[in-house]
């Protein structure tokens, strides 16, 4: 297992569109294990492969209190089943230290493969529904700051760049 480096906004690699996984083979299982370890190390609830500069459709999420219920989504497909919007204060391991309200549909249905390559479907609720939408956005090169005003987004960008210069 390995802890991987997480790209930070506004790294242009975060805009890369991830490709579907053709075979859930040993290298993908290794990637999933490393992503789970990286997510726990960073104290995150979700991580997309895009964030570690691997442009494959792989996501790991754990919204459990005990941090022992990692979920794996390979080649996820999402469908909105309840378009009513809810606001949630989101953060992102690629935008450390910043949290802002984002509106997303409350009800989604997700189809994906698990780490064994087996297909499954789920209708997540609450935080899990928010998180899966946030992580699928990463696979499409999108960040939660894209939902904010340009003013807010640029302010966050400048502060992050300044923090890195003086770190
Ligand atoms: C996405 O984000 C998410 O700023 C996952 O200093 C977040 O795990 C979806 C984190 C909230 C829905 C709601 C952020 C850790 C973790 C930080 C994360 C930080 C340390 C973010
Ligand atoms: Co994120």
How is this structure best summarized?
The chain has 167 residues and is α+β, with helices and mostly antiparallel strands. Helix content is 28%, strand content 27%.
Shape: globular
Give Rg in angstroms. Answer: 15 Å
Report mean pLDDT, rounded to a whole number.
98
Helix and strand string, N-terminal first?
HEEEEEHH
Share in β-strands = 25-35%
Bound heterogens, unique? 2-phenylethyl (2E)-3-(3,4-dihydroxyphenyl)prop-2-enoate, cobalt (II) ion
Total beta-strand segments = 5
The biggest beta sheet is recorded as: 5 strands, antiparallel
Helicity level? 25-40%
Number of helices: 3
Structural class: alpha+beta
Spatially, the strands of the biggest sheet line up as 1-2-3-4-5
Distance between the termini: 28 Å
Low-confidence stretches: none
Could you characterize the architecture of this molecule?
The chain is an alpha+beta fold. Helix content is 28%, strand content 27%. It is built from three helices and five strands, in the order αβββββαα. β4 (100-113) and β5 form a beta hairpin. It binds 2-phenylethyl (2E)-3-(3,4-dihydroxyphenyl)prop-2-enoate and cobalt (II) ion.
């Amino acid at each position: 297992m390995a802890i991987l480096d997480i790209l930070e906004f506004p790294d242009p690699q975060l805009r890369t569109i991830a490709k579907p996984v053709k075979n859930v083979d040993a290298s993908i299982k290794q990637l999933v294990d490393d992503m789970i370890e990286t997510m726990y190390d960073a104290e995150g609830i979700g991580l997309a492969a895009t964030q570690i500069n691997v442009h494959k459709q792989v996501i790991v999420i754990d919204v459990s209190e005990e941090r022992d219920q990692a979920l794996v989504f390979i080649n996820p497909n999402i469908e909105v089943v309840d378009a009513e919007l809810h606001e949630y204060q989101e953060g992102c391991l690629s935008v450390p230290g910043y949290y802002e309200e984002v509106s997303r549909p409350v009800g989604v249905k997700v189809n994906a493969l698990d780490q064994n390559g087996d297909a499954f479907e789920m209708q997540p609720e609450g935080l899990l529904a928010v998180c899966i939408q946030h992580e699928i956005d990463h696979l499409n090169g999108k960040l939660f700051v894209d939902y904010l005003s340009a003013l807010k987004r640029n302010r966050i960008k400048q502060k992050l760049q300044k923090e890195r210069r003086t770190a």
